Amino acid sequence: MGFVCWFLWRKDSICLNEYIYSTLVSGLFKDEKSEDGLKLWKEMLEKGCKPNTLVYSVLIDGLCRVGKPDEAEEIFTEMVNRGCMPNAFTFNSLMRDFFEMGKSDKAI
Question: What is the superkingdom listed in this entry's lineage (predicted)?
């Protein structure tokens, strides 16, 4: 389904919103295409789509899962600075990553 949305979007047939972006970003990270996920994130911002908690959380989780904890922390900081409230999913992704890296002091 993500490919269909991507194709239609590229053809200007539909307008993507934050929910479609979150699905596409999540799918790209799960498919081990993190660079494409980050590229889509940047395109989303350039097109003026304001990310919500879901989009931020999906991106943070994806970055954590591909071993980019510093980038995940930067996105988390950006999220908070823009007034977007993290949720349990956001915190769970960061804590899981900290524990896996042996940085339990940051997770607690």
Answer: Eukaryota
